[in-house]
Amino acid sequence: MTTVDADSVTSGYEEVRSDQAPDVTWMVLKYEGSQIICSSTGDGFDAFQQHFGDGDRAFGYLRINTGDEMSRRTKFVLLIWLGPDVSVLKRARMSTDRAVVKSIIQNFSVEIMLESRGELDLEYIRSRVEKAGGSVYGTGN
Prior knowledge:
Largest sheet: 6 strands, mixed
Helix content: 25-40%
Shape: globular
Order of helices and strands: EHEEHEEHEH
Strand order of the largest sheet: 1-3-2-4-5-6
Structural class: alpha/beta
Number of helices: 4
């Protein structure tokens, strides 16, 4: 049975959500044996991407700024990463593991499951957040 290291996950979660830690815009949760831990936090999407390999199962929590020149909003995204080389059995376990993670990470605008490098793209993720959030208004400038 999978467990979560609640202390490390809660700490990373609070860092990403905090306006006092502007240099932390993401966290990555990975498996250490049968436990899910906060393996890394940081800033910059390129650095975030590096934590997701083809054989990995992982979770990401990401702060994204959306909106337009009239209205800027901070949104949070829960990403579920299933690399293309993950076995069928491990893929099946992700649904129950996701529920365990969501018992701690409760505030997010959208949950996105990613299974390919092409989807692990900031603009793709941003478009999913904007679609979930409704209309984007702008002046065209």
